Amino acid sequence: MRCLFIFAHPDDETVSCAITIKKLTEAGHEVTVVSVTDGGAGEVMRSAQPNLKKFGSVGELRRHELQQVCAFLGVKKLDILNFKDGEITNQEVWGKLTIACQEKIDEYQPDLLVTFDHTGWYFHLDHVAVSIATTLAANQAKHSPQIFFHTLMLVENTKWSYVFPKNLPVTHQVDSSQNREVKIEAMRLHASQDLDTVKRWVEERQPYFELFQLVSATSEGEKMLQNQSIFDKVLE
Fold it and tell me: Residue 111 and residue 59: Cα distance in Å, rounded?
């Protein structure tokens, strides 16, 4: 199975579904990760300042970290696009970004396509932009993915609890309780970023799952989901 993950920044793939990606590559599936930006507007942890000096810019540092993570997860293809972190406009979403995502779908011809849900997990505008553009692209590309998932994030203990639902529209989940160390190591490799909150979730949640919502599936895609052991269907 060919799998394509489209996200906005280096580390989104890890926060979302590092364990899922690792399970897919270990099962022999071909995984490609596309990052729409290089994360060049992100803050850098004080402990990573020596690496920032070494690489010369935040973007170059985060590219390097993403390359390390992809190697660790077994990802064979990594594609970092040239959109500006924090500067994706509404015009780009409905224009250049959708076209770029469409081109990547046609280039890599995935059986499985994965991106953010439309909330962008916590309303990060770059995340929302990539979700909308990838979803539009999935419907406009010449190649039609057999399976299309949005990833979901369960946000807890926030002062904005009225914004984040406790019950997410999860249709499939990946049991990750026995593979926590994979995600923790991938987060460690994204050393420039403050991922302590996610790390705490990974360590404390019992059981721990990576969460997905099925957007669409062809009849062949439905068969693929039935015949694999990574994505478990959540019974209503």
Answer: 30
